[in-house]
Amino acid sequence: MRLTILGCSGSVPGPGKAASGYLVEAEGFLLGLDLGNGTFAELQTHHDPFDLGALALSHLHPDHCADFGALTVLRRYHPDPPYDVTERRLPVHAPENAPDRLAKAYAPNDTELAETDLSDVYEFHALGAGPVEVGPFELRAIPVDHPTEAFGLRISHGGRTLAYTGDTGPCAALDELADGVDVLLAEATWTDAPGRPPGVHLSGRQAGELARRAGAGRLLLTHVAPWSDAAAILAEAKGEFPAAELVEQSATYEVL
Questions:
Q1: Domain Metallo-beta-lactamase: where (predicted)?
Q2: pLDDT in tens, the chain (256 residues)
Q3: What is the separation of C-alpha 189 from the centre of its chain, rounded to a whole number of angstroms?
């Protein structure tokens, strides 16, 4: 498997940095993970968006799904798509309310919303029912601790596993998500300063502790907020898991 970073800025886009979005590739199949603000532009520097085989959305905060509207415009209005998008609808694995939530974000008024459900170009599947086959991958979604319905995603292929925390505070589900993974892509929005609200995000220290407990092979830190001290977050994570590293937009990582 190969992981590509479309964006890694936490909560909002940062200067020259898109919000959350990632690609996972194997056997020529392209799986998108989240599609936050700015990621659709970055996607086009790597692949034709029509090449997406499926998309998984960990949750529906804008910094993880805002560019879904741009993808919808492309799929509905491109004058010369490479295939019939109504016959080859894109599978979207997302929280149960995604069809309604994303239609409301896309439609500019009540009149259009009344006749817009996006099912003409997408095939929606609710996360959380159990492991599912997505192209060559096994995708497992595990509910995590965030102010809205949110999932960590565990993606396996060829004996290798990547776990993506999505957005979450510390919770027991993360140990199940990350157990024995080859690569842990973990959010680390802020430092471990006192007074952080519970059930929202992880600190660098908490992400490092998770990787150490899980026996992860590699820890990749993402979702660092633009107002956070990235160097301090990395230092916290390294204190618990010395092999931790910060991801960079446009970078690729092999899941080995």
A1: 47-223
A2: 999 999 999 999 999 999 999 999 999 999 999 999 999 999 999 999 999 999 999 999 999 999 999 999 999 999 999 999 999 999 999 999 999 999 999 999 999 899 888 999 999 999 997 899 999 999 999 999 999 999 999 999 999 999 999 999 999 999 999 999 999 999 999 999 999 999 999 999 999 999 999 999 999 999 999 999 999 999 999 999 999 999 999 999 999 9
A3: 14
